[in-house]
Amino acid sequence: MISPRYHREIPQRYRLEAGKCKACGNVSFPPRLVCTDCGKNEFEVIRLKDEGKLLTYTIIRVASDKFFGTTPFAVGIVELNDGVKLTTQIADVNFNDLKIGQKVKLVFRKIQDEGNSGLNCYGYKALLV
Ligand SMILES: [Zn+2]
Fold it and tell me: Considering the entire predicted model, what is its pTM?
C-alpha cells in the first residue's frame, strides 16, 4: 500500500523542490527542518536543476514486491548540476550504454502503481542525454 509519506513528498517528487538554508546556503534534498551544516532552521524553497551526471549505477534484477514485474532495471546515483546528489531509476536505457560520468536529465514518470483499483505514484527518473 502506498503510504501517506508519498503525499507529503509530492513537492520533491513532482517539482524537485529543495530547501536552501537562509543562513549558510546549504541545499537539502529532500528539505529538512534543521540545516545539517549550521543548525539553523530557516529555509527558502528552490527548484533543483534537472540535469546532472551519473556518479554510479547498478542493475536491479530481483526487486521488492512493489517493483515486481519491472525487473531488470537500472538505478543510479546522480549529481545534479547544482551539486545535490540523489538516487533514481535510469529509464529507457540499454544497460550496455551506461557509463559513469554520463550526462543525464531528470524526467517526470510513473514510479509504481497498485493495480487497476489503486493509486499510481509519480516522480522523477533519469534519462541518458
Ligand atoms: Zn545552514
Answer: 0.84
